[in-house]
Amino acid sequence: MTDQTAPAVEVRNLSKSYGDFVALKDVNLTIAAGEYFVLLGPSGGGKTTLLRTIGGFQRPTSGEILLHGKSVGHLPPDKRPTTMVFQAYALFPHMTVLQNVGYGLKVAGLPKAQIAEKVDQALEQVGLKQFEKRKPHELSGGQQQRVQLARAIVLDRDILLLDEPLAALDAQLRKDMCLELKHLQEKVGITFIHVTHNQEEAMTVADRIALIATGDLVEVGRARDIYRAPEKSFTAGFVGENNILKGKALEVNGTAATVDVAGSKLRIDTRGLLVQAGQELILSIRSECVALEHAEGAEPPADGMSIMGSYDESVYLGLTTSHLVRLPDGTEMISRVIADADETLPQNGAPVRLHWKPSDIRMHIQ
Amino acid sequence: MNEYENPWLHRLKWTYLLIVVLTLMIPVLYVMYISFNANGFGANEYVFTLEWYGLILSDEILIGALRWTMTLAVVVTVIAVPMALLAAKYYKTADNKLFVVFLLLAPLFVPPDILGSALLVSFKNLNAVFIWVGNGLGTSMFDSWFRLSFMTATIGLIIYTIPYSFVVILITMGRYRNEQTEAARACGANGWRAFWDIEFPQIRAGVFSACAFTVILVFNEYTRTSLLKGGFDTFTTVLISQMLNTGMSAQSYAMSALISFVAIAVIGSIILITLIRAETLARIARGKPEPATS
Predict the structure, then answer these.
(1) B117 — contact with chain A (CB < 8 Å)?
(2) Which of B179, B180, B187 to mutate to test the interface with A (most CBs of A within 10 A)?
(3) d(CA A34, CA A160)
(4) What's the pLDDT at B293?
(5) To the nearest 10°, the Cα dihedral for A342, A344, A345, A348?
């Protein structure tokens, strides 16, 4: 019996190795029932391995997986309360859309009339009712992925695993499908676990995001928190466009520390981290939080919220423009603004001051 | 034809192809021609007849050999093709694919007479060992297990045909994506159901081709069969024995021609049906609108 009050997925001390290569290292994770959870990270980081292990397509080297409170490590994929949407090539090419969507119900031994009714509803939900007689090769990439979705949701399983379901689609279609996925999850109310390396896709659909890299679960949090207040420097570097600065703590005074970055003394909230004078630190600040202004002199201001540099160049990105500034130690910082007026741009090499609000800069310990 | 190609070069290629096919087929056509001659092979006068075909059924040696050959072909196909299929499935998931291929194709690189005689010696030794064990146990139950027989010929032919079946199946299996099996498992199908419902329909052509190929190989094979068969004859061993000793009988020419007719008709039909089906599918595809973009 499954425990419906227990989390949908609990991963305990999960490790997975392929010979000498360690794909997952002691991962612990809890996913609530009805949550849209995203596993985000760079390619080869271990997120697909985690998803496939939850789905029963790979056996863990050590650790445990519980689905609705029940250990499933010994069960094959067809005995788990999960189903899966694959990146591509997973539709059965010799079957029509109707047969593809109804396949799982046929395997389950449902009567034909009930299969027809459920398939009809599922195709209605993904907006493909008029394509039911077509074979997969007669559908576009987006339609094929919708058929996969219909084939998965028609089974009424508790957990839907999505392995890079939008990776093979073009940018516009991916955006549209992201919203469709989110709305579908809200409608069916089951747990979605979605793997992607695309942060925009993750932000669009996720209730919570887990960042996975080099086999480690780096950080878990709400999409907004992961973006605005990353705990780890890796998260700051991977999500959004953060400026990553290296510095050294000069003095620690209560909840704030003075940190030397490229000759400027910055005042940073320690966020409860144990920091000592002389310690090497990593600082992160999102590029859209950094303001740029012409500097009158070359001396760094003593406000603790700004840094001096020389203007490098600007990159026009349509909606935003990125200004690149070189710090005295060679580090490059970016200030991103929603404006493209360039008549007041500094000359290349001109001294500029970058500044921000105290709450925007975050301290990380390696 | 390539639009920039010289038309004469194009005609030359077709002529070359025709000459190659005729060169390959003339001996077969000649056998067919003789099989309709009332005066048999080498006669000065050619008189058309169907008599030899009528007499095939009365030639007990030939009919017996054909029956053995058919039985051998069926048994070898039933065993070798599933084994080759399993090997091909294993190959797809194996880490060291080169080693698997080497193991499976190795029998192809051993000359047939060497492989046949090696098996002959092995069976004789095994037979001696089993008789010795049986004597020790006071039973004659094991005496005939590895005596040259239908079973030893079957083993020899399985070893011979598996590499061919493996290659034929592997070619069709190469197009198959494993994600489809995983998708079927995710839909609740167990391993066998996923194979039967999803994978097999897509590799069926390769499996049936492997079956056809195996039957043809069993009909063709002489060296291993003659070394391992024991007390029965196959169609090929009878024909070769006749050729080497008394010369082929008129019924043998008729039977050879009949088998060639049937083989060509079957293969020709498969090609024709495949071409017609491909053309029909292409016409359907042309008639349908382009996939709608989302």
Answers:
(1) no
(2) B187
(3) 10
(4) 43
(5) 130
% of chain A at pLDDT higher than 70: 96
Residue pair A174/A106 in contact by the 8 Å Cβ criterion: no
Ordered by where they begin, the domains of chain B are 61-248 (1.10.3720.10)
Written as one string, the DSSP assignment of A116-175 is HHHHHHHHHHTT-GGGTT--GGGS-HHHHHHHHHHHHHTTT-SEEEEESTTTTS-HHHHH
Q: CA–CA separation, B258 vs B265, rounded Å?
A: 10
Domain hosting residue A341, numbered range = 242-364
- How many residues would you count in chain B? 294
Please identify every stretch of chain B with a pLDDT value under 70, giving residue numbers as ranges.
1, 281, 284-294
Q: If we measure between CA atoms, which residue out of B97, B90, B87, B236 comes closest to residue B157? A: B236
pLDDT, position B287:
61
From A194, A228, A262, give the residue that closes a domain: A228
Of the candidates B211, B155, B173, the residue with the CA atom closest to the CA atom of residue B94: B173
Rounded to an integer, what is the distance from CA B163 to the centroid of its chain? 11
Predicted confidence at residue A49, as pLDDT, reads 95
Question: Are B187 and A155 spatial neighbours (Cβ–Cβ below 8 Å)?
Answer: yes
Integer angstrom CA distances of residue A130 from A15, A115, A123: 45, 17, 9
Closest CA–CA distance from residue A86 to any residue of chain B (Å): 7
Asked if residues B90 and B100 have their Cβ atoms less than 8 Å apart, the reply is: yes
Whether A260 is covered by a domain: the verdict is: yes
| pLDDT at site A186 | 92
Interface size between A and B, measured as CB pairs under 8 A: 87
Q: Give pLDDT < 50 ranges for chain A.
A: 1
DSSP symbols for A248-284: EEEEEETTEEEEEETTEEEEEE-TT----TT-EEEEE
Count structural domains, chain A.
Answer: 2
CB contact under 8 A, B183 and A143: no
- Give B110-130 pLDDT, tens digit per residue: 888 899 999 999 999 999 999
Q: Report pLDDT digits (tens) over A61-74.
A: 999 999 999 999 89
